[in-house]
Amino acid sequence: MTSRETSIEIPLEELRQQRSAKWTAYPPDVIPAWIAQMDFRTAEPIKTALQEIVSQEDFGYPRREGQQPAVVLAQAFSEWMDKRFGWSADPALAVPVSDLAQAKFAAILAFSDPGDGIALQTPCYPPMLEAIRETGRRFIDNPLVDAGEGVTLDIDGLARAIDPGTRMILLCNPHNPTGRVFEEQELEALVALARRHDLVIVSDEIHQDLVYPGRRHMPLAALSAEAAKRTVTITSPAKSFNIPGLRCGVMHFGSQELKDRFHRRIPRRLLGQPGIAGMDAAITAWREGEPWLSQVLARLTEARAQFEAAVGTALPAVRWHAPEATYFAWLDCRDARLPTSAGDFFLKEARVAFSPGESFSPGYRDFVRVNFATSTAILQEIIARMGQALLRFAR
Ligand SMILES: Cc1ncc(COP(=O)(O)O)c(C=O)c1O
User: Fold this and answer.
1) Which residues' Cβ are closer than 6 Å to ligand 1?
2) Does the pTM exceed 0.90?
3) Which end of the chain has fewer beta carbons closer than 10 Å to its terminal beta carbon, N or C?
């Protein structure tokens, strides 16, 4: 192991002590590689910020830099977007949220009514589907298309699916589970369609920073004034900095009019406010976390290469498109002709827990999403167990 790896990777014995869902949901003989959380050490500045709250017993009503912490959070968000993507997001149009599930539900309640149509590209991160169903909205399926080179948006299909009762599009970019970073032309076509039908777009960009060399993330709201005025960007440092338990994110409205429309239905107080630990961690991540993030991206690039080397060799009959972003491998196991869903097969036969494909859309039971944000050794073990199970089954 190199010193860089030792500095960032948490060894298996230590991970097994954690109380997180990832490391406690399955029996100890199972290696968990499902929920979106990395097995890496936390950035030092974030740990220091949290330790400071504890050592000062600073648990009162918060104030930061002489103002409301939400104001500092919005500034840190705006600085990060500018630095990383050249997007000048107005901090005055940003609202803190506890998590992005809350942001999605709130946006749906604000910009649509029960029975209205909401379009979503599938397969997709399950809480996006839940947000449509649990608010009584109509789900308009817009499956991604795969012509062999990786998935793309099906703009023509979406144009056909949109009806007079359609009010919104939920977009996930970079895309979970496929790891696609959509091209500007695809996004422009989506915005043109939204304009034609006067739709609000909620763009979940939580995976924005986890993009591999050669690709670039384009915030939807930064595309054009037309895109901005109908886009609610929802994002947080939870994925990039591996702090989802600290619960802090941001909703950014691309225009004052959109923000006012939102608050006419969702008063600010109804959203509450994230706790100070979450806000301090997020502010610190965006202001001081970049060196740590570079280290993580280097490790993820290696892990992606490790997986790429295994697909088709150690893992016969498994196909994938290497992700352009995210730490997910979206594996197509149809050629393996497994006896059960791929998720069940690998759990039972390989004792590795992945996110089952059918949770992203019912037609994907032969797919699994593997979280490869772990140590070289654990990933090697995951690949070996998968390979052995496939081999046993093929005999
Ligand atoms: C697309 C997407 N959005 C949001 C989240 C997390 O959101 P929350 O802040 O609700 O935990 C994830 C986590 O995997 C995700 O993949």
Assistant:
1) 36, 99-101, 125, 172, 176, 204, 206, 236, 238-239, 244, 249
2) yes
3) C
